[in-house]
Structures are given as structure tokens and as C-alpha cells.
Amino acid sequence: MKTKIIKNNQIKVFKIAESVLCEIPLLLTKIQAGFPSPAEDYMEERLSLDKKLIKNRSATFFARVTGDSMINSGIYNGDLIIVDKALNPKPDSVLLCVLDGEFTLKKVRKIKNKMYMIPENPDYPPIKISEYNDFRIWGVVTYSIRTHY
Amino acid sequence: MDCNNFYVSCERVFRPELEGKPVVVLSNNDGCIISRSEEAKQLGLKMAEPAFLKKDFLKRHKVHVFSSNYTLYGDMSQRVMDVLRIFTTEMEIYSIDEAFLILTNTNNLYATIQKIQQTVFKSTGIPVSIGVGKTKSLAKIANKIAKKNKVYPGLFIINNTQQRDCILRNTHVEKLWGIGRQHHKLLRKNNIITAYNFTQINNQWIRKKMSVVGLRIKQELLGVSCMPIELCLPDKKAIATTRAFGKKINSYTYLCEAVATYATRCSEKLRKQSSVASIITVFIHTDPFNSRDKQYNKSKTFALPVPTNSNYQLAHYAIIALKQIYSIDYYYKKAGVIVDGLMPENEIQYGFFEVNNRVKWNMVIKATDKINKKYGRDKIKLAIMGMSNKWKLRQKKLSGRYTTNWDEIIQVLK
User: What was the pLDDT predicted at B133?
Assistant: First the structure.
């Protein structure tokens, strides 16, 4: 692709230069000649974050966090979280909950037979879940991702 | 397996506050109601009801209305199907929200299908119903009963002939899978009202009047499988992209943009199944529901010089066809491109006098396909597809693409 002929804020139109097109090398088949790569027998699949961080593909969803109620669990404003709907919560799991129709991120604990949503920030008090609340666990947070760059 | 109110259920997974409230999803262009929550059904809203006739009603009853978000529904469907695959090796995906599964372990069937139902719901948030029968036709009937089952909500098994006949006596023949309006008329004239009546007619009569299709339905109802599970979908015989415009258009330029875009969509669908098309049809028409407009309805079909699945070629011939049928005197509501005479990509007979450089173009297409897959549809497109958006779909109430677009994922506040 050679000359840019039009530019506005939405599109860029490129002219396809024919001479360049023909020169794209095609490596469709294995190279027959020469020595085989000494690494060939040692090839392993490259590491994949998808495979590492996602166990149940069909049950995994991503969400963006706003707010600071979970900072002591290491989840900050703007973080990306990975949520697995299929997992069963462990006692200390961070959960994506739905309280009266709204998404919220909390831990959930049973204290003296009462259910509480526990924020991980001393500035916020625990929230008692009463029988008048519509409360559901939507999924379990498996990983959170921060941007450092 | 059938997903309950599938499109509405998809929307609710990401908008939990809509649980227990009336919700509907509209068809392309926000035309008709195509999915209703139970609450919306109870309000008396009907399937395929035009939304604009119900505007005040929807507002008055605080019904939540969504435009159809097929990006989301497609992904959620794939998730549901992937979960189902854990439970069987043989499965036929029948539609976006239905599948047939072969269950080999028939001990404790209710426990098995309950487990399937729970796993799908827990993994995806989509509620499903499961009906079990010896054949596909019986499974379909069982599924309808499952939706009303009080003992096992959403589950039902037809497991013996006595029970089967009782159900068939209570099933109207027109509700059967595969019985169309013509056959229903014929059966009613002959006093065949229930599915059970249908199973009692002799084979010769059915064969004569309803061909082998009718006979198969009878056998299926009696528990003899005649429609085997199709593990992979057969490639399509013809591919069409037809759409109504967001608003009526008169301009040739805009029609060109639309037709070129539809041709490109056809070419994408062709490449996906590694086929090429040898015939292309373009049609345009005015709004048949508007009696004040002058009506016009025309199409043009071409045989392509060489079968192709190239976006450039198909758009080129689509525009030539459009040029021949376009008339400035009308306001158009819909256009479409249909490609036909499909064959496998690797069986193309090249033209003797062909001047096009096919190899070069294939490389361009491969490269743009890759780029568009990475950066979003139509990032690189043919200039004739335009930027006007004047004819694009009306989707006023579109929800987020929560699972396929980083900018639209779930937001958790607090």
C-alpha cells in the first residue's frame, strides 16, 4: 500500500500499488530444502493468558470495576475483572453480586445466621442482606487485571 | 432443548434489574415483537405484533423494549451449545436457541436432564426447557409440555406408549412439527383433529395425500425415528442478505451503498463455507404497507461469468443489476442480494478469456478479512459501500455487546 490519497476524520483511502502486491512472499507450505530446524522436536505451544486465566470458556465474562469498595482485596477503580459463572464460591471469594437488580462487587459472609455483603475497605460498613432484598450471586471473580503502562 | 424466551433471557443476564419485569425484543429495524418475557406474554402482547401499533401500550405498562442485538445472542447461543456438548457426543444445533441431543444413558433420565438444565443456567444465565422422546418429533412435543410442568419445571419425558398416546390425543394436529397450513386444511377436511387421529390413518392415504414427508411425521410420532440427528449443518443452497432500510430512500447513491454492502455480506457468508456463487439476484421494492406511496417491485438476475466469492466481484455485478432496475420515481423501503448456484471453492472452472487477476484479489480479500476480524467489521471496505449510514437499520434500543466488545462489557459500580 503506497499513497494515501484522501483523509478525513473517519476514513483513510489507500491506493493499492500493484507492483507491491505481487512481491508479497507466500509461505504456505513448509520449506523443503535446507536443514530442519534443530528446535523442531522441542516445540511447545506458546503461553496463552486466555488458557491460563479462563477455565470455563462458556461461563466466563469480563467486567470493568468502578469505585473503591474492594481495594483491600487488591481490586481498584478501573480494573478489569474476570468472572466465572459456573464456579461455586469459596468462603473468601470476591463475588459479583446482584442486589435489588444492581451489580455490585463484594465478599459474602454469614454472621450469626444473617447474610452480609462485606466491602474490603474500612470506610464502608458491611451491608446486611434482609429478606426484603432481592439478592443473587451472579458469578465468582477469578482474576483482576490492572493497567500499569 | 429449547432456550426460554431466548433473546429476552440474553438481555436479562446483563441487566438483572429486568428480572420479573415485562421485556420485549424487536425484530430488525425495530419492526415487530419477536421475543417476550413471561410478564410481557401475560400483558397480552403477541408474537410478531408490530411495535409501532403498540407504542402507547408498551409505554403505559412500562415494558422494556430492546432492538435485536444478534451479536450478543449469537455469542450467548454458542455458549449454551458448548455447555450442552459436555453431556452428549451427538448433538444437532437446530436453530439459535434449539438443539437436539442424543442421551445414551437412560437411567434416571429426569436427574440427567435436570443436571443439564442447571448447568446451562449456572454457566450462562440462560433458562432452558428440555423435552425427551424417542424421536425428534416427540421430543418437540415433550418440550412444549415441559414449559408448563409443575413437578419438574422446564422438563418433561415421554417414556411409555400409553402416556404418549394420551399426549397425542391432547395435541392438535396443526401444532405438529412439519404440518403446514395446506396439510392442516386437508386433515381438518377429513376430520383428523388430533395428533393421535393422525397416527391412526393408514400409510397409503398419507403417502398419497402428503407424500413421504407426512409418512415420516406419522412414524416419528409412533416412536420410529425417521429424521436422524444432523451433526453438522449442510452448507446452504443459496445465500441471501436482504434488509429493510431505517427510512425510505430515493437516492441512487444510497441504494448503491446498501446493495454493495449486502453483496459484501453475501461474499463473507460464501467464504465462511468455502463456496462460490454462480448466480446473483438483486431486488428493490417500495413499502407495501404504505398505500399512499406509488408501488414498485423489481429484480434482476445475472449468471456470473466465473463463479466467485469475492466481495469486489459480487458488489460489481450487484451494482450493474441495480442500475438496470433503479427508477428515480419511487421511494424504496427494502433491497436484497441473493447468490445462488453455489459450489465448492476448489471446483471453479476459470473462464478462457478471463482478464481479472484472481490470485491477487484473493490475497487482498484474505488480508482485509484478517484486518476486519481483528479491528471490527468494515474497517476496510469497498468505497462504494459508502459512509452515509442513511439506509442503515433502525436500532434505537440496542443493548451492549457485553461479550464481544471491550468498550461495552459489564460495568460494576461501587
Answer: 94
Number of H helices, E strands in chain B: 13, 14
**Which chain B residue has its CA at the smallest distance from A95's CA?**
B412
Backbone angles phi, psi at A25, to 5 degrees: -70, 145
Q: What's the predicted TM-score (pTM) here?
A: 0.76
| Residue of chain B nearest A98, judged by CA positions | B16
- Residue positions of A annotated with a catalytic role: 69, 106
Domain end among B72, B100, B130 = B72
A55 touches chain B (CB under 8 A): no
H/E run at residue B118 = helix B109-124
> Does residue A25 carry a pLDDT above 70?
no
B321 strand-pairing partners: none
The helix/strand count (H/E) of chain A reads as: 2, 9
Residues B256 and B358 in one domain: yes
Please name the helix (run of DSSP H) or strand (run of DSSP E) that holds residue B258, with its range, or none.
helix B252-272
- If we measure between CA atoms, which residue out of B164, B172, B166, B87 comes closest to residue B130? B87
**Of B161, B195, B221, which residue is a domain's last?**
B221
CB-nearest partner of B124 from A21, A85, A103: A85
